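User: What would this chain look like folded?
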Amino acid sequence: MPRRILLACFLAYTSQFHTWPVLAQDVSFGNEFSLSSVRFFHRFTKNDQHEYTPASQRDLTAWTDMVTILVYRKANDDKKLAAIAESAREKYKAVGRVLRAETVLNADSKSTEHLTVVVVGTPMYLEAVFARFRMQEGIGTAAIYCHRIYGDKVGDQMSAWLQKHGVATENSLLAWSQMPKLSELKK
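Assistant: Here's the prediction, encoded as structure tokens.
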């Protein structure tokens, strides 16, 4: 991905640093849920990877907004989850630009959470990725929100989207406490 595009996305996003606020929570319903007032519906499961898109985005080859929930069954403590989050961050670095990376103690659960925000791309699209790693029901999980813009010269569009929606998207994902229960995830 051209450095100029990544730099523009990085500058647009990092100019808005902020703290992790507490926001009103959205409701989950097993294989469908609401995040940031948008309803997401189950579209695909493979092993412990569960993908959801809004009602109008059924085509998984042409989506623009997706939430992926990953379950790491062997991560049964903060240390193992931290290793998974760091490994994911390194993989993102190899294919894109990390805009933000943070580790904090969740005051409610007393466990450590990890956030990575990155822009990745191909010649066909740019994708903003917001990945939150946390312990859920004693097992490591990741909730990953992605926004994709299709086209070969969409750096300015992605920068504008991040400027307008990046902070709100991050805050919503970080405040989201109503993720589907692990037992409710579609097998």
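Strands lie at 28-29, 32-35, 38-46, 49-54, 65-72, 96-105, 112-122, 125-136, 139-150. If you want, I can go into more detail on any region.
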